[in-house]
Request: fold
Amino acid sequence: MERKWWHNKIAYQIYPKSFKDSNGDGIGDIRGIIEKLDYLANLGIDILWLSPIYKSPLADQGYDISDYYDIDPRFGTMEDLEELIAKAKERGIGIVMDLVVNHCSDEHEWFKKACEDPDGPYGKFFYIEDYKEGQPLPCNWRSYFGGSCWEKLPGHQDKIYLHVFHKKQPDLNWENPLLRKEVYKMINWWLDKGIAGFRIDAIINIKKKLPFKDYPVDREDGLSSMENMLKEATGIGEFLGEMAAETFRKYDAFSVGEVFNEKDSELPLFIGDNGYFSSMFDFSTTGLGQNDQGFHAAKEITPKEYRDAIFKAHERVEGIGYLSNIIENHDEPRGVSRYIPASGLSCKSKKMLAGIYFLLPGIPFIYQGQEIGMENLAQVDCLDQLDDCANIDVYNTAINAGLSEKEALEVLRKHSRDNARTPFQWSAEKNAGFSEAEPWLLVNPNYKDINWESQVNDSDSVFNFYKKLIQLRKNPEYESTLVYGTFQPAHTDIDNLVCYYRRGDKTLVVLANFQDKSIELPLASNINKIILANRADITYNSDTIKLLSYDFLIAEVTK
Ligand code: TEU
Ligand code: CA
Reply:
C-alpha cells in the first residue's frame, strides 16, 4: 500500500453545539473550539473533524445546510472559522469539515428556486414528481427518521419531492451533472481555504435505484427500509470516482466516508490506493444487536459479538486500505454504555475498551467526551427532555409495537442520539463548565463525577489513559508497527477475550479480558515487556499470564 500522510494520524470529532460555549447563549461555538485548541493539541490529536457549522435551520442539527458557503451565526462567523483553521495549523492540527451533499436544507436557495419553478434548472437539482391526491406515491421507501420519504412540494398541490432523511432535507439529484459540478466547486472552495479534508455524510444514499418502485413492506407502517433499495442501486462508483478526481485528489486531502453496505469486491475501489476515499468508518459494531423492527427490538451486545465484528472488519480490509475506528459518534449512544455490561462499567473497563479499538490498524477517531469516559443518560423522564428529530420515530415505533410509555422512554434512554450530544463535561461547576447559560440540551447529571477537571491531574484517569494511548501510537519505537504492522487475531476460541497481534519491526500483542472474572492464559511467545496496561501489577511467566476482570495490556513479545 502506498504511504499517505494521514496513516499515522489521530482524529477527534467535535460536535460544535455541545463542545464549548464562548458567549453565554447555551450553544457551543467556533470561538469555544478556539479556546480549547491547546487542550486538543495537548491531548495529541492531529485531525479535527467538525460536525456541520454551515448556515442551517438546524432541523437535523446542521445536517440540513441552507448555505454551503456561510457559517451559521449561532456558531460564529467565517472569520472565526478562518482563525480556527490558522490556529489549528500552528499546532499541527488539520481541520476536517463535514460534507453533507446527499441533501441540503429546504431553506437552501436551490430548493426555493425549485419551488418557484419546478420545471426550471433548479427543479432538476432535486427529485420532484407529479402527484395526484389519492394516487399511490412513486415508491414506499421509509425515510430514516420515519414516515414516507415523499412530501408535498411547497406551493404545488400536484407535486412531491423526495427526502430520505427529514422532510427539511430534500435529496439532491446526483444524476444531474450540473448539480455535481456545483458540489465539486463548493468542495474545492473549502479546500482552497486550507482545510485538511472532509468527512462525507450519508454518501451511500446519493445513488438511487431508478425508476422509483416499491420494495417489500417490512413494518406495520406499510413502508420499506431504505436498505432494500440501496442493495439494488448500482453505479455509485461513477459519482464517487468523479468527485475524488475533481476534488480531494487534486489537494491530497483526507476524506473519510460514512459508508454502509459496501460489498467485499468494492473495498479496493472505496479505500484502496487511489480509492474514492482515504478511509471509511468501521461501523461493524454500531449495528450489533439490532434488527429491522426498530431500536426497541435491539438485543444486548456480548463481548464475543463485539470482538468478532471488529476482527472481521479489519481482516476484510487487510492489505487493501485503512478503516477509521470509532467506539461512538454523534449518531450513536456512548460506546462505554453500549458495549460494556452495566455491571462492569468502571474506569478500568473504559480504559480496556479504549485500548482494544485504539491499537487496531487504521485511524483512531475520538468523539468528544469519550476521552473522559462520558456515559449515556441514566434516566429519561419525558420526550421533551431530549431534542433529536429522530427520537419521535424511535418512540412511536416502540409504542406501536406494544411497549408502554415508560418502556419507550427507556428505549430512547439507551439508543437516542442525544446520549452523545449532551454538553461536554469540563468541570463540576455550573452547567459542567460548558456554558454560563442554560445549555440547549441537558447536561448529563453525572457531571460532578465525570468531568475533565477532576481527571487531568490524576495519572490513573481515563483521560490520561487516552493520552498514553496517543503517545504510544506516536512513540517512534512502536509507531511503524502500530500504523503499518499486520493484524492477526488470536485465541478467538476463548469467549470474552480480545487478543490480537500487530507485527512489523516489533511484535506486539494486545490482550483484553472482556468480562467480570479472571482467566489464566497460555502464552505462545515470551513477553519482553508490558508497554501499557490498565492495571500496574499484571503478572506473567514464560508460558502463562493471569488476567483479572477487565484487564487490558499491550506488550512486546519475542515473535
Ligand atoms: O447519518 C447517516 C445515517 O445513515 C445514520 O447514522 C442516521 O443518523 C440514523 O440512521 C438516523 O437515526 C448522517 C449524520 O451523521 C446524521 O447526524 C444525520 O442526521 C444524517 O446523516 C443526515 O444528514
Ligand atoms: Ca455560543
